[in-house]
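Quick one: structure for this chain?
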Amino acid sequence: MIAVFRVGFTWYQVVTSVLPECALQQSVRLRLTVDELQQHSPEQIQGRFGVVTFINGDCAALEGNSLRLSWRNQVDELVAGDIIVASVRLKPPWGSLNAGGFDYQQWLLASGYNATGYIKYGQLESSQHRPKVAQWVRSVVTSAGLVESAALMALALGDKGGVAPEDWRRLRNTGTVHLFIVSGLHVGLIGGWLYLFCLMSVRLFGWCLRKAVHGHRLAVMVSLLGVACYAWLSGLQPPVLRASLMAAIVVLADLTQRRSVPLRLLLLAFIVSVVLQPLAIFKQGFWLSYFAVAGLCWAVVGYRRLPTKVIAFVRVQFVLFVLMAPILGVWVGAIPLLSIPANLCAVPAITLVALPSLLLGILLEPLAPTASSGLLGLADLSVITTKALLDTLTRVMPLRLQSIGYFPLATALVGGLSALAYCLPMPRAGKCVALLGLSCLLLANRSGVSFGQVRLQVLDVGQGSAAIIDTRTRRLVVDAGPKSENRFDAGESIVIPALRSTGFDQVDLVMLTHMDNDHAGGRAALERRYPNAEQMFGADACVHNKSWFWDGVRFTVLQHVKGVSRNDRSCTLLVESGFIGDRPTHAVYLSGDVSTAAEEVLLNWLPRGVTLLITPHHGSRSSSSSAFVRHLAPMWAVHSAGRFNRYGHPRDIVVQRYALEGAAQVITGVSGGITWSSSSAEHLFTQRQRWFDAQR
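Got it. Here's what it folds into:
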């Protein structure tokens, strides 16, 4: 009850805390402390900054807050603990929200961030000159000249800032992310090594101590001390906190001569960690770590009946996959089938070679530099070999078989519990029932669209555009969202998870209205994932008035062929469905970034009255003329624009024009991704507002 109350009260405090008006959407001058650098490169840094004081004006409410900031072209080399004075532009915690996608806003709030933004310019005021263990570790690894120094830093201290996006993509696709972040696995290994080393030392030199020391208890205490130090160095992340709590509880049970039951200890650690870090329950890693430990507690039962330790290791990997699959399917958007063979290869290489060599090499650096260099080189070679093995597995295993798409919560739970039940010892009749439960995963992989109908998803990609159109058996992607320099790729992070979210993981055609970054930035990610999809990229690939039918739905490409600008020559798309004879019941128009000049030409081919319109140019003042709005008179007007965007889209005058025609308007940056179906045309489903009625 205490844990539940703590979570509810803390979450209420977070969601009710609003960025003060004095700092909202304007430049403010702050004195900041560098708490954590999460991404650092010569071009840009990103991390957690704490507000010390507000300099230019009265905004004391901002002091003490935690900010997630980026800084391009920074002058000074920063480390954690530095104090800087900077001009900062802030906005409240907010993020894109789509089906099957990552809830960035929830993650920000759960991580304790009060605002996000960027540093326009700043300067170092004071630096922390006292030596820090973490800084020393970083200097040892970076000065060794290792190929995979960034991965080794992530392995040692959880410093993920230097890891390349393609490396993270490889780890996610293979289900091996847990190996390259500081997790409970590393804590358990460090505690186990320290315990064995201390126990062997006491037994070897016990005669010198005249048996004054109880070897087992001393080893346990040294192990716990080492675990606590490592947890402190890694920043007490939820998996590390969980493992440390488990270790402390086990030690207390051992010292008090109480018999410890693993699952009870796990439950106690869960309650304590929720009380200490209540918002951690809104993080995927928190649940994955506890399910992983529960799986280990269950999997080790019966090891003595297994012929070899190899079979035991395979059993552990299979059980962990089964237990964590429902969480990954619901939260991440895909279940990596590749994770079982990938972990069988990667776990021994990282846990038995790379991690011990790395940590021992760091410790020996002041005493034996030559031995330290050799151990660090061995750790580097192990990581290189592991990456090569993962790449080989990715190439050998067909793309379609590497992961299963997203499943609804109920389906994922039924499938996961059925798989777990199948692993338990039971009669054949019970295993047959479990297999029937597993079949629901296959039944869920359907588009769910009737013949002659169409389903449209307009994705929340920030200031950009991306949409998915489904018929009964075919799928079309229109635009791929932006790709920014700070590693955000809408194609990888938003469009592909949304495509998987229905369990219908295929694309027949990718159409880019034009090649501006806000529409085409995610193109490369879609090409990697769906190499066989037909392509229609930009104005040069358009064929004006080209028409085709998919499953009783008509698609027509319209273009202002004589347009001068790239925006005016956008490939626009008219989608008509629900035909009664030759006349469609519903029409959807995706208008790209055309201006009023192109609108005037395109009206010659557009029908009078459409059901849904994705407004031109994100609701820009240079588009959506009065004649265009009156002609189309949409039931729904969807503005694909980011919240707090610097262009002010959609413009107030544009919103007023659609309102005068009685259009129900939705902004993706405010409502999140939207889903519309021609079978219930008067309703929209939005990720934040849920069901939205056109009559409102």
